[in-house]
Amino acid sequence: MRTSAFAAILLVCACGAPKDPTATASTAPANPPIQTPGGEPPVVAAPASGPASAPSALAGSLPERLDCLRASGGVLLIGHRGGLTRDYPENAIETMERTLKAGTRGMEIDIATTKDGVLTLMHDDDLDRTSTGQGLVSDHTWDEISKLKLETYSKATDFSPPKLEDVLAWAVKNNVLLELDKKKSSSFDPIIAAVRAAKAENTVFFITYSDDQAIEVHQKAPDLIITASVNSPAHLDELLQKGVKADRLVAWTGTETPDPELWKALASRGIESAFGTLGPRNSSLDGKYWQDDDGSEYDQLVSSGLPILVTDLTDKVSRQLASAKAKSASCGF
């Protein structure tokens, strides 16, 4: 994702202080029953032991669903690196399935490329921190990487790195929104091709880190949604003047200081804003907001006009924002 400091979170937790707020996070349903469009029976989040039921998606494109989200006053919650926990590693399908059962339908994932050109999920350039392997991802074949096991900060798991194509197929089947973060070993063209092959155009955002990247992805795939850093209405104008389309843009507004005035200004021009509370435990807003075990700050973000939130503490935030999430369900999220 947009911070490379997540390893610091793991190190702090491994050393025993401070206490990890997700340690007691339940996988119980985070969403109350909701009424879907057209008078269908309410959709209820499934228990942890069974498959999660997808809300009825609107018959429309992802841009139309995002417009609905903005108008609903609800929130789309995105779990950083799939919503990892103490027992579930980052960037694993099994982790994403657990996150979905717990009530979150948006997930950020990281895409790397193997030596023989297979797209897989891995945040770091190397395998050392998050798997039983060693060395660069790009120096290993898919056959080698597929035999590895993924690790949390404390243990190896029974889960292996997945192919991107399998993750995309899973997301389409389960109506999950994926935020795609291209790592150094990858390029946009094969990722776009994989999205097309999976018919996942209405299931993904492409993360971009600069105006040039935003323009590049938009030129390669003008029908797909990108997230791009936007720090002011004037900056938005610059992007639009360079050819980025407003209805294919989500404005990334950082991880440090909430900016409701910017969110409202962008919303008035049809742009959804995204903000992240993720980051190192001792400095992130996730860590700060839960210091008093009161997550009301998240409600304040949503009531201040934020429609998309990325977090490291997926379960806790999902429960805190259950009412706001229910509002967005009729938009297909």
Rg, nearest Å: 19 Å
User: What percent of residues adopt helix (DSSP H or I)?
Assistant: 25-40%
Under CATH at level 1, the class stands as Alpha Beta
- How far is the first residue's CA from the last residue's CA? 21 Å
Order of helices and strands: HHEHEEHHEHEHEHEHEHHEHH
How would you characterize the overall build of this protein?
With 333 residues, the protein is an alpha/beta fold. The chain has one domain (54-331): TIM Barrel. It has 13 helices and nine strands. Strands 1-2-4-5-6-7-8-9 form an eight-stranded parallel beta barrel, surrounded by seven helices. Strand 2 and strand 3 (119-121) form a beta hairpin. It is globular and about 50 Å long. The two termini are 21 Å apart.
